[in-house]
Automatic annotation (TrEMBL):
EC number per UniProt: 1.11.1.6
Pfam families: Catalase, Catalase-rel
UniProt catalytic activity: 2 H2O2 = O2 + 2 H2O
Binding site residues for heme: 338
InterPro entries cross-referenced by the UniProt entry: Catalase, Catalase_3, Catalase_AS, Catalase_clade1/3, Catalase_core, Catalase_haem_BS, Catalase_immune_responsive, Catalase_sf
Name of the protein this chain belongs to: Catalase
GO molecular function terms noted in the UniProt entry: catalase activity; heme binding; metal ion binding
Annotated SMART domains: Catalase
Listed cofactors: heme
Length: 486
């Protein structure tokens, strides 16, 4: 019998595959019977109290979203009903890996989340300032975030953990290239784009579903911070992004983002050479050009940070009629994980808090629980019932069926495509010489104390992206380029 330790679930059952969620076919949706995924995400959400496990350090503001272009051919959502319609919003920006007291100038993706208080319920876009992510399967999310947190023995941030994981997860190359580029440290929150990142869906009045990508493009222009300047700012004011956003709004300099979509028909998706639900990849804007939707303006600061920012709860499961989800494996995991994290961190009735409460009537049969604000008078807590005027289901709001590829229910390997390199290569080729050198210098600085075998493993990936990319980093680390060409 082997002396190797067997990976198990919490009840001691051996795990055969810790890389892939169970899905209905290779591109199909994640299955609820994947108890391994549920256990992993549920335990991860409960590891820390009381701050957010990720996106702990953040800033927020109130504002409006105004429709500027008719997209009713794609969606019957009420907030898009006509040009000029205005919807109140609350947006929260954040770093990802740091704690609540961490620096606003860390090299880290930035969370970019918006809650639309529509007249048909709250709709949330919960994304980042990058169009892609490091992983494509939610089963790996706890593992990935552990590498961004502190070593359980030393309680220190450790590049060794990051690069060990990334070098064994080549699907991360696209996001790693963005993270270590000049856009890895945005100059505050006003000067960065935002993305839904995942593929979502819109549904029109005829029940036709269209796949979409959401893009918020800053009207203030992109501004980034050089690492040396970031270190200086961190020492002088670790809350520089919070201060910049708050003061801009306080002085009437209201930041704006123009919202766009990319659209892909179901037929186009079925014939797309790449998986259109893979969050580690983007859609070509030449093939799927940006279509303007409207403008978001932030024009009011919170009156109480804890009540309005710290207790704000965003979740991709908040959809409204005319909007929808997709079979994206990471998105499907987040649908469970975010709401579960809020129930744990804030309480089961977190959606009744003023910052999270819809601005339209809410009628359901949920009752009681800690911190329950209200319950309907003289109403039952079960359904179906024969009580007059009790809430009843409305079939007209049903989504059209979502077709999934025929296939077996199994843990399908998400690393069968082999194309981890073309999109990072396209991004690298878009950079000018100064941007390429800064990217290389940033990675050298991060990898310099990582074990040599991990350096070489990762460098082989960079070299496959582009020889100049891999050899430039190898030179900075003092590694013979011949060692990474294989």
């Amino acid at each position: 019998m082997s002396d190797k330790k067997v990976l198990t679930t919490n009840n001691g059952a051996p795990i055969a595959d810790n890389q892939n969620s169970r899905t209905a076919g290779p591109r199909g949706p994640v299955l609820l019977d994947d108890f391994q995924l549920i256990e992993k995400l549920a335990h991860f959400n409960r590891e820390n109290i009381p701050e957010r496990r990720v996106h702990a350090k953040g800033s927020g503001a109130h504002g409006t979203f105004t429709v500027t272009n008719d997209i009713t051919q794609y969606s019957h959502a009420s907030l898009f009903a006509k040009v000029g319609k205005q919807t109140p919003v609350f947006a929260r920006f954040s770093t990802v890996g740091g704690e609540r007291g961490s620096s606003d100038t860390a090299r880290d993706p930035r969370g970019f989340s918006v809650k639309f208080y529509t007249d048909q319920g709250n709709w949330d876009i919960v994304g980042n300032n990058t169009p892609v992510f490091f992983i494509r399967d939610a089963l790996k999310f706890p593992d990935f975030i552990h590498t961004q947190k502190r070593d359980p023995k030393t309680n220190l941030k450790d590049p060794q953990m990051m690069w060990d994981f990334w070098s064994l997860s080549p699907e991360s190359l696209h996001q790693v290239t963005i993270l270590f580029s000049d856009r890895g440290i945005p100059d505050g929150y006003r000067h960065m784009h935002g993305y839904g990142s995942h593929t979502y869906s819109l549904i029109n009045e005829d029940g036709v579903r269209t796949w979409v990508k959401w893009h918020f493009r800053t009207e203030q222009g992109i501004k980034n911070i050089h690492p040396q300047k970031a270190a200086e700012m961190d020492g002088a004011n670790p809350d520089s992004a919070q201060e910049d956003l708050f003061k801009a709004i306080e002085h009437g300099d209201y930041p704006k983002w123009r919202l766009y979509i990319q659209v892909m028909t179901e037929e186009q998706a079925n014939n797309h050479p790449e998986n259109p639900f893979d969050v580690t990849k983007v859609w070509s804007q030449k093939q799927y050009p940006l279509i303007e939707v409207g403008v978001m303006e932030l024009n009011r600061n919170p009156e109480n940070y804890f009540a309005e920012v710290e207790q704000a709860a965003f979740e991709p499961s908040n959809v409204v009629p005319g909007t929808g989800l997709s079979p994206d494996k990471m998105l499907q995991g987040r649908i469970f994980a975010y709401a579960d994290a809020h129930r744990y961190r804030i309480g089961t009735n977190y959606q009744q808090l003023p910052i999270n409460a819809p601005k339209c009537p809410v009628h359901n049969y949920q009752r009681d629980g800690a911190m329950r604000f209200y319950s309907p008078d003289n109403a039952p807590n079960y359904e179906p019932n024969s009580v007059d005027n009790a809430p009843k289901q409305q079939p007209q709001y049903a989504e059209p069926p979502m077709h999934v590829p025929a296939g077996t229910m199994d843990r399908h390997d998400h690393r069968v495509d082999d194309d981890y390199y073309s999109q990072p290569r396209a991004l690298f080729n878009l950079m000018n010489p100064d941007q390429k050198q800064l990217l290389i210098d940033n990675i050298v600085g991060s990898m310099k104390n990582v074990k040599r075998d991990i350096q070489i493993r990762q460098l082989k990936h960079f070299y496959k992206v582009h020889p100049d990319y891999g050899s430039g980093i190898a030179k900075g680390l003092g590694i013979d380029v011949d060692l990474i060409k294989s």
